[in-house]
Design a protein that fits this description.
The protein is globular. 41% of the residues lie in helices and 17% in strands. α2 crosses α3 and α10 packs parallel to α11.
């Protein structure tokens, strides 16, 4: 009798907790407009029903993926200026403006870095040239030969009177070997962690990582791309007990009004990291543009945007492509819509080329990618494998658009991370990025797809099911 009574009460308690968990999920999803991937929604619902005592606290810690709110506490709508029909914007530029991103502007002195040594020389020159302000945003700062050099440069510039701000992701700071931030601060460098996992757990931000990379001097000179500030992203380090081989990565620097857009984005990120609120965004203003061919714009994506901006532009570009799609990424785990857009493009005769590392630094991403690669190659796309680790991120559509920056073609990057790409619209510039990718395409071998065995297919499916990382 006592056993039956205990069992009845336990079932009642379990049902109460499940009901509470599902109610919290429904209310928060509606109030905060959390548009989730179907696999993520299903995973959360199943978890809340089967393991509510574990999953409910986990959901409260990492369950939110959008943080774009107004002062009144509601989701900020996209800033969508009414563009006159004669305004000189590309289709992608108009779509970006409709999602509230800054209007395309001009730039000058674009330098695409040939390799890690070239990128490091440009970074050193920018840091040395700063006169009033120097701002750095990175996912991680390595505790290695490269990280130590950059830290020394920053401390010296701070002592010389330059205002130096360093923004590092709250999880990336540990992945980089936990650099000595106190030493930086004591030298006058302003250091902030973006979404510290400990302080942000109760706000549901722990799973939202800042993956943006940019360095800006005096609001006029911007260094940007896919490189973190650690040895393997530049020239490597073979002097230590555990040598770091240099990876292949893509970065660039430029000057002019586009750098000012980058400065505005950094200021917004810094304000959020230090005060918990984003800096106010100015309404996009229209200005006379001599020709769309001189234009580029900052494309920020992540929880601070109402829309999944980079993802939307890539999918739109795949559907509108007329001749070619050229992409390079270290991790390829697309959702169903992006994969469909790329396969449809290949089936209608668009030359689709995808460049990947033969073996990346993330084993699970390598396992999860094969199903998508089989679909792509079956549709007529060509997939190329580079023997070295390539960490570059780029998507080129025809000769009209090059998206270059920090975003990978995986679901975490496109739907959860704070990312930053620059959209270039000038055909000669697009061609220069195409030539850089082509240089590495020449070293690649063609991917050959094979049907998976029963066990390997099951493993692929399990890894892919969890790939969205909730």
């Amino acid at each position: 009798m006592l056993h039956e009574l205990f069992q009845f009460h336990w079932i009642t308690l379990h049902g109460l907790v499940v009901s509470m968990g599902l109610t919290v999920y429904a209310i928060t999803s509606h109030i905060f407009r959390q548009r989730r991937h179907p696999s993520a929604s299903i995973a959360w619902l199943i978890g809340l029903i089967v393991f509510p005592y574990l999953i409910l606290p986990l959901y409260l810690m990492i369950g939110r993926r959008k943080m774009a709110f107004t002062a009144a506490g509601r989701m900020a709508p996209p800033l969508a200026p009414l563009l006159p029909s004669n305004h000189d914007l590309t289709t992608t530029g108009r779509l970006a403006a409709a999602m509230g991103l800054p209007i395309a502007t001009t730039f000058k002195q674009l330098a695409i870095h040939h390799d890690g040594g070239d990128a490091l020389r440009a970074l050193r020159a920018l840091i040395e040239a700063a006169k009033g302000s120097l701002d750095l945003c990175t996912f991680l700062l390595g505790r290695d030969v490269l990280g130590d050099e950059i830290a020394t440069l920053l401390m010296r510039r701070a002592r010389e009177g330059v205002r130096v701000r360093l923004l590092i992701d709250g999880v990336g700071v540990y992945l980089g070997g936990h650099p000595n931030l106190k030493r930086l601060s004591s030298a006058g460098v302003h250091v902030a962690l973006f979404v510290s996992p400990i302080r942000s757990a109760l706000r549901g931000r722990t799973n939202l990582r800042n993956h943006r990379k940019m360095v800006i001097a005096d609001g006029q000179w911007m260094w940007c791309g896919g490189r973190n500030l650690a040895a393997e992203y530049f020239e490597g380090d073979t002097t230590t007990a555990t040598p770091k081989e240099a990876w292949i990565d893509l970065s660039f620097d430029l000057r002019g009004p586009l750098a000012q857009q980058g400065q505005q984005q950094f200021d917004s990120d810094w304000s959020f990291a230090t005060q918990g609120t984003a800096a106010s965004r100015a309404e996009p203003t229209l200005r006379p543009v001599a020709t769309a061919a001189t234009n580029a714009q900052i494309i920020a994506s992540g929880p601070d945007q109402s829309d999944d901006t980079i993802y939307t532009l890539i999918v739109s570009g795949c559907f509108s492509a007329q001749s070619r799609i050229l992409a390079v990424t270290p991790y390829f785990v697309p959702d169903a819509t992006l994969l469909m857009a790329m396969t449809f493009a290949a089936r209608r005769g668009i030359a689709v080329d995808l460049l990947l590392p033969r073996k990346s630094n993330h084993r699970l991403a390598d396992i999860a990618r094969h199903a998508a690669l089989r679909d792509l190659t079956a549709a007529g796309a060509r997939v190329w494998l580079v023997p070295a680790m390539i960490h570059a991120k780029a998507v080129l559509i025809d000769s009209d658009l090059a998206l270059i920056g920090s975003a990978n073609l995986d679901e975490r990057s496109l739907f959860l991370n704070y990312e930053l790409m620059v959209a270039f619209y000038e055909p000669p510039v697009v061609r220069r990025f195409s030539d850089w990718i082509g240089m590495h395409l020449n070293t690649a071998t063609r991917y050959q797809s094979h049907p998976p065995g029963l066990f390997s297919g099951w493993i692929e499916g399990m890894v892919r099911w969890a790939a969205f990382q909730l």
